[in-house]
Structure of Iron ABC transporter:
Amino acid sequence: MLLKSNLQKWSGLLFAVILLLLLMCVSIVYGYTDTTWKMAIDAFTSFDGSNEHLIIQTVRLPRALIAAAVGASLAIAGVLLQTITKNPLAAPEIFGINAGAGFAVVITVTLFSLSNLQIFTWISFLGAAVSFLLVYIIGSIGRDGLTPMKLTLAGAAMSAMFASMTQGFLVINETALEQVLFWLAGSVSGRKLETLLSVLPYLIVGWGLALLISNKLNVLSMGEDVAKGLGLKTGMLKIWSGLIIVLLSGGAVAVAGPIAFIGIVIPHITRAVVGIDHRWVIPFSALFGGMLLLIADTASRFIIMPQEVPVGVMTAVIGTPFFVYIARKGFNK
């Protein structure tokens, strides 16, 4: 643990906020269209209608805000999943939650040709909820009840099923394929600010509820029996945690598509920095998650310029080695 005292943690939190804002500024300034810091400032203080100012205001600013919000949401969802399942590999994408939300959106596009943002939001939430419920039920079946290994296998099975069904629907509808293919790879490119605003209230509720239950998550981390002995209603806490996970994961997928590995990587990094107290883990994870997605998105613009790599591909490249490390460490103790 790098930050031990409360003073160090508060200082670290302030530094993380400043760094997040700086990365958002970098995301706004740098890209295929050559702009400068002065142009970015002028775009908001003395807008002149130029192409550069339009790109900064209508393309890059929404993109930076979306990356920060989605990264924070996926990171917090990963923290909650790992805590309530006691599984170091738990994350929305591993448990099939992202895949379920994505599949629900694809069905909406292919069967009903709908493109309304508000409908996408609710459909994404529904898909995330159904997927989470199925994984939890399947992982609980059997003599030993709920175990980290069974949950991981159930999540992998659900992810594979939803991914296969998604591909099947897209094969029979080429128009839908063109509409959602880039979205399915996970991307914050080309998203409008209205897209974020349509889900932001749900994300804010999810962030707030996660902070409210942080103390109870600390008790649950001590073990199920100990938590019950201290009077904690563990079943109700898990239901609330599941609701928060669905809000955050479903909202993130509705905006940016299924982006992987943030929910796995960030909670482990955060615990290495601030320890296991969820009162600190949750806010730090939110900031670190936003930072990681901003870095990945900014880097994705320069790899094959003038084309862009979907940010979901970038996070997969970053997260896959980390996933292998955590898998070996978590199941070989």
